[in-house]
Design brief:
Radius of gyration: 27 Å
Helix content: 40-55%
Strand order of the largest sheet: 2-3-4-5-1-6
Shape: elongated
Number of helices: 18
Oligomer: single chain
Largest sheet: 6 strands, mixed
Length: 416
């Protein structure tokens, strides 16, 4: 074990617990006085919202899975089996019969809905794992790229992916595998042997994103067969990233399902993490009038994002942008509702405003614009007053009823 630790001295120590959470977190610098700056400065600073990163349980699981997969991959590179596999791969390059003997039990998938933050979680994990851009091994001496990230071709081209792996390796190691493959006009079979050899010597984890491209492609099964052969011939850990559309494809055969078991995630539930996330991101305010987050705002953010982190960030960002451009200079239900209606209209078909509390979901019924002046009346900023009491207050104090309602409800005025 001590020898393994010396060999992998280029790997950072594995983090866990609060140390991991703190290291994963990214909190952009923020000063309250920014709200007094001119419009241009505030709009530029507003983009810091997209840099904010608050790790979730998904982040922790992805980091741990990738670290351990890299460790196992590195351990295989110093075995006698790896030396025998190098000989087998060389025979493949020479168009001779050969077989894979390394095995690929370290492969896994990360499947999740679009926008839930899996790409950000993977990026943060990779940043922590790859403190050193390249790990140098002593026995045998070689340079290893800890995590190599490529994207599945739109047409699931086998040869296209193999060449892309070689090109990406060359970018990091300043080698010439890609140019040699092009000049030699290597066949796909030759390329599998070449890439297997390169992966065995120089790659820790191979990450392939957008794997759902294989689902509706005629090359899909051939693509997966190539991947299985690649990991058998190289012993590297393979991580496939995609959306739930690809799950039925992976479930077609036991062999495929066994090798590609992994992590699956859906949208966030309405829980303590979501509330905490909303409170933190809401505190980054660049409008002149500072406001406090309320339970009603948190419910609005969940109901109008379907629990998708990226949509929550877009709502907060665009609501402030609207507030700055319009002169309202406020982040509240009014500007949030404007952001949802004006900026996220393309997502309305995918987001049905709901709020789930501990598994119970309450849906807001659609109302005819002519039937009501109050949209989403169940979202109340201050439930101290009922509509009847507010009407009475408006009459007694000679106040504008619409303005008064806007202070407590999301109000949408419509022409009749």
């Amino acid at each position: 074990m001590n020898d393994s630790l010396n060999v992998f001295a280029g790997m950072p120590s594995m983090l866990s617990g609060q140390d991991l959470v703190s290291t994963l977190s990214i909190f952009p610098e923020y000063r309250d006085s920014i709200r007094n700056e001119n419009q241009a400065i505030r709009l530029m600073a507003l983009s810091d919202l997209y840099r904010l990163y608050i790790p979730s349980q998904m982040s922790i699981e992805i980091y741990s899975s990738m670290y351990l997969a890299l460790l196992r991959s590195m351990q295989k590179k110093v075995t006698k089996t790896a030396i025998r596999q190098q000989y087998q791969n060389h025979r493949a390059i020479q168009n001779q019969a050969y077989r894979g003997i390394m095995g690929g039990a370290d492969s896994f998938t990360i499947i999740g809905d679009s926008g839930i933050g899996k790409t950000s979680a993977i990026s943060r994990a990779v940043e922590l794992i790859t403190e050193n851009r390249v790990i140098e091994m002593d026995n045998p001496y070689t340079k290893v790229i800890p995590v190599l990230n490529v994207q599945c071709m739109w047409d699931s081209s086998v040869k296209g992916l193999l060449l892309e792996i070689l090109r990406t390796v060359d970018e990091t190691l300043e080698s010439s595998y890609y140019q040699y493959a092009l000049k030699s006009r290597a066949t796909t079979d030759n390329l599998i042997g070449s890439v297997s050899q390169v992966a065995l010597n120089h790659i820790g984890i191979l990450v392939i994103d957008e794997i759902q491209n294989i689902v509706n492609s005629k090359n899909g099964k051939r693509f997966i067969a190539m991947l299985l052969q690649l990991i058998n011939n190289s012993g590297i850990s393979l991580c496939l990233i995609g959306v739930p559309d690809c799950i039925p494809f992976f479930e077609q055969t036991f062999q495929l399902s066994r090798r590609l078991v992994g992590l699956q995630y859906g949208t966030m539930p309405f829980d303590a993490y979501f509330e905490s996330f909303c409170k933190v991101i809401f505190s980054y305010q660049y409008v002149q009038q500072k406001s406090e987050i309320t339970p009603a705002i948190i419910e609005f953010l969940y109901g109008h994002s379907a629990g998708v982190v990226s949509v929550v960030v877009s709502l907060i960002h665009d609501a402030q942008e609207i507030g700055i451009f319009s002169g309202k200079e406020a982040l509240n239900l009014d500007t949030l509702n404007q952001a949802y209606k004006q900026r996220l209209s393309l997502l309305h078909g995918y987001i049905q405003p709901t709020v789930s509390h501990g598994g119970n979901t309450s849906k807001r019924k659609k109302k005819s614009p002519a039937a009501s002046i109050v949209d989403n009346a169940s979202i109340i900023q201050d439930n101290t007053f009922t509509i009847k009491e507010l009407v009475a207050k408006a009459k007694a104090e000679n106040l504008d009823i619409v303005s008064l309602l806007k202070e407590h409800f999301v109000v949408v005025e419509v022409s009749v």
